[in-house]
Amino acid sequence: MSDDASRLWGGRFDGSPAEAFDALNDSLPVDRRLWREDILGSRAHARMLGARGIIPAEDAAAIDAGLAQVEAELASGEFAFQPGDEDIHTAVERRLTEIAGDAGRRLHTGRSRNDQVITDTLLWLRGRCDAQALALKALAQALIAQARAGLDTLMPGYTHLQRAQPVRLAHHLLAYAWMLDRDHRRLAFARESAGQSPLGSGALAGSGFAVDRDMTATELGFDGITPNSMDAVGSRDALVDYLAFAAQLGVHLSRLGAEFVWWSSEEAGFVVLDDAYASGSSMLPQKKNPDAAELARAKASRLTADLSGLLGTLSGLPLAYNKDLQDDKHYLFDAADTIDLLLPAMTGMVATARFDADAMAAAAEQGFLAATDLADALVRQGWPFRKAHEAVGALVKACSERGVGLSGANDADLAAVGLGDVEMPDLTALASVEAKDVPGGTARARVMAQIDDIEQRVEAW
Ligand code: ARG
User: Fold this and answer.
1) Shortest CA distance to 257 belongs to which of 244, 245, 273?
2) Which residues have a Cβ under 8 Å from the Cβ of 380 and sit 6 or more positions away?
3) What number does the ligand 1 atom closest to the CA of 329 have?
4) Which class does domain 365-446 fall in?
5) Which partner for 129 in 23, 191, 415, 428 could form a disulfide, CB atoms 3.0-4.6 Å apart?
6) pLDDT for the residue 15
7) How many angstroms does the Cα of residue 195 sit away from the middle of ligand 1?
8) DSSP secondary structure string, 41-53?
9) Region 113-362: CATH code
10) Which residue ranges make up each domain of the chain?
11) What is the DSSP code (8-state) at residue 460?
């Protein structure tokens, strides 16, 4: 049995909680990182209680001063957590009461830990969203800078990981910048979801005192107040919205990581990663492993699990607050910490990567990447596309049997597939990319327009 002298809810209990129960129930190890937000929320609540005459003005002042001291102790690390501190809210209030006595015991007037914890969590989430928007911007800018540098680098574009058609390196990298643009919108949405103050919702039915909810909301920087107290304390939608952002971003970074893993392989040889973003092997002296990219590839699993974990926790929960909700922070913090690790590492990896333009260009010229361009040329000469596709397919077969690419086709090959009197077009990779001159295509002018467009958007994030 543990010491329960400082418990907040001991009144109706005869015995102390079992240690095994405390170990399961205590959330301090997870939620202690909410201390700044907890103190901000409590100071706002206490000032409002004083301003409204719900508690005496001198008690409100004593609470404010006491909380300033608690904050200083937490910031300096001298705050001593006690065995009965089951969560950060309990710890702060316990210490405040030690400092301010009965005034401290008035802090929780008209408030419940249920509206307190979600208020703290939303405040924390809004702060992380702001910081991560900047980190996301840095990654998008790194991609755009590499895209500018790679405007005239041609490479094979793939489907099924088979060389399909030539593209500009810029086009390939910008695909990821556009993904991040959508991720940024999801992040902004999560921040907006976290924008209504739940404070004043009480345990579930609303506060029993004439609290000024707008006053605390404004002081805490919220955009407004929640309209339904049960929804306010029983829902975690803003966390789900954030986790959905994180999961989708995780999937995008995983795919980007996968590209870099294989682009940096000896088989592809398209990119050399900076030593600062790679590591060696303890046994194989020649190895330089793309660990940052591999870890980015792996983290999507963790991020999607966090989203799925919280959704699972929420499913089937009757209103309003249930202790199940205490687990929300596990998922939220894990995802936010993972994104905090990933974004700067991916930004550095992308910014310092050295692309091998010659290796990419050589791969884009080899083989049959111009097959569709040849079929398109036949169509322009009056052939129905399906017939053109058939004839070029037969030519590809004949050339690959002879071990040559499309540019190695001779008169006999052409005649054998009915292309004897066809005027052969320019089958270079450059001609191929320039032919894709549609909005969103890989022709130079289109990619330049894309760069301008995405750059302007990212600037405004
Ligand atoms: N530690 C709790 C949590 O994170 C605080 C709310 C406790 N509320 C309650 N009714 N026991 O959810």
Assistant:
1) 273
2) none
3) 4
4) mainly alpha
5) 191
6) 82
7) 21
8) HHHHHHHHHHHTT
9) 1.20.200.10
10) 3-105, 113-362, 365-446
11) T
